[in-house]
Design brief:
This protein has seven helices and no strands. By secondary structure, the chain is mainly α. Helices cover 74% and strands 0% of the residues. The relative contact order is 0.10. The chain is elongated.
């Protein structure tokens, strides 16, 4: 059977399959097209005959790759130490006091982290290792690494929120201008 025939017969089924994996119709449509293009390129290059099994395998691999990217982006964007507001403020003594207070809150959160969670957090945020590198080093899955990072960030944000509340005004340390 030619690829165009497979496309006509299975495009909607494949798109539905990918929508279930990804939870997003637009991404599913894009990856359906990408899967057909990759299989077509393989067929044109005489590397392999096109078939439904190959098409679904390519589509599944593309979906898994997309899910890994999403997860990585989520933990990276949610987890920058700069987002935790622990930046250096040498120029202003009052701001420096506020930054020290936030840093103390993050340190307190780290003290409350379970040991494995703390180790993953340090390797990712302080040593700059990738999630895959951490998984290999600690002998755990990347999914487990992501869960630990997410938990660590939740604890940090919670400690910062509590620290702000203790300072009197939300979002400001004692002495910061209004």
């Amino acid at each position: 059977m030619m690829l165009i025939d497979i496309y006509r017969r299975r495009r909607r089924d494949l798109e539905h399959y990918l929508r279930r994996l990804l939870g997003n119709g637009d991404d599913a449509a894009d990856l359906t097209q990408e899967a057909f293009l990759r299989v077509y390129a393989a067929e044109v290059g005489d590397r392999t005959p096109a078939g439904e099994a190959l098409l679904y395998t390519v589509a599944r691999n593309l979906a898994l790759s997309e899910l890994r990217k999403r997860t990585s982006r989520a933990t990276d964007s949610a987890g920058d130490l700069a987002d935790l507001e622990v930046a250096d403020a040498r120029a202003d003594p009052e701001a420096l006091a506020g930054h020290r207070q936030r840093l103390a809150a993050v340190e307190a959160a780290m003290a409350r982290m379970p040991p494995k969670c703390l180790e993953v957090f340090r390797l990712r945020k302080l040593d700059g290792l990738s999630q895959a590198e951490i998984a290999i080093r600690l002998g755990i899955t990347t999914h487990t690494v992501e869960r630990h990072i997410t938990r660590a960030l939740q604890l940090c944000h919670q400690a910062l929120t509590e620290s702000r509340g203790a300072a009197g005004a939300p979002g400001r340390a004692r002495g910061e201008p209004r």
